[in-house]
Amino acid sequence: MDKGPQSEPAAADLPPQRSGAPGIHFEKVVKRFGDNVVLRELDFTVEPGERVTLIGPSGSGKTTILRLLMTLEKADGGVIRVGDRPLSHMEKNGKLVPANEKHLHEMRKQIGMVFQQFNLFPNMNVMRNLTEGPIRVLGLSKEEARERATRLLDMVGLGDKAEEHPTRLSGGQQQRVAIARALAMEPKVLLLDEVTSALDPELVVGVQDLLRDIARQSDLTILCVTHEMHFAKDISDRVLMFDQGQIVEEGPPDQIFGEPSEQRTRDFLQAVLAS
Ligand SMILES: Nc1ncnc2c1ncn2[C@@H]1O[C@H](COP(=O)(O)OP(=O)(O)OP(=O)(O)O)[C@@H](O)[C@H]1O
């Protein structure tokens, strides 16, 4: 059952947008899987154009937060906003009601995600992996979509792989295709879920460097989940330590990794270092 508030959204209370990209706002978001309460009235904000990394123990709910933003999961309570518009809800007669498919489809267009396991379409070559969404969802012509795809494949260093099938590429190359595919939809928000954890160690740095460059050169709002603390430091303006359904502590990477103030953060970082 959805328990979203029945009031006007307080758009005036939201922070001003610093870039063309929208911010992300979780307001008392609850998510349960059966008896397992994964998010407990979770509140947090990612400012427009900000790069934020979520860290925290395995199974604590970080991926669930990204999946809620991708509308792959539905919240059991609270409101999620992207920019000044609710994602999980829509406005009707001055009230918030659960979003319908049309609203979700519109909102989803703003958001791209790169997954741990690449999730490329295995039956399509690289070019079609990149052009399918822009043609089908954004209504681009085949030529426009191919032009965009070619530019992005060059950017990720795979200009010569357009006709290959994903299964013939290395994990690092597949992840580069997945990054290019996400960008081909020209999202304003980019979600990164453990994007290097399925890669062989020698391929990790290349993909991380690519994402760091994208983060620095674009005005995308980025929400990243990673166990790679160097990458988190490199890519983030701010780090959120998440545990037991709530944000435990937040701050700039130097503070969280250098002088964490919460015991739970210290324990987590020590466990990561030891692993
Ligand atoms: N579809 C689902 N059905 C039931 N339980 C689920 C489902 N998806 C996630 N969970 C549970 O929700 C909790 C949070 O999972 P989630 O994958 O979000 O954690 P995480 O912090 O991303 O973990 P990791 O760092 O290991 O990827 C876990 O207890 C998980 O078992």
From TrEMBL:
SUPFAM superfamilies: P-loop containing nucleoside triphosphate hydrolases. It is a peripheral membrane protein. Its main location: membrane. The keyword Hydrolase does not apply. Belongs to the ABC transporter superfamily. It is found in: Cell membrane. One of its GO terms (molecular function) is ATP hydrolysis activity. GO terms for cellular component: plasma membrane. InterPro entries: AAA+_ATPase, ABC_ATPase_HisP-typ, ABC_transporter-like_ATP-bd, ABC_transporter-like_CS, Ectoine_EhuA, MetN_ABC_transporter-like, P-loop_NTPase. This is Polar amino acid transport system ATP-binding protein. PANTHER family: AMINO ACID IMPORT ATP-BINDING PROTEIN (PTHR43166), GLUTAMATE_ASPARTATE IMPORT ATP-BINDING PROTEIN GLTL (PTHR43166:SF9). The keyword Cell membrane applies. Residues 1-22 are annotated as: Disordered. Residues 24-269 form the ABC transporter domain. It comes from the Bacteria. Keywords: Amino-acid transport, ATP-binding, Cell membrane, Membrane, Nucleotide-binding, Transport.
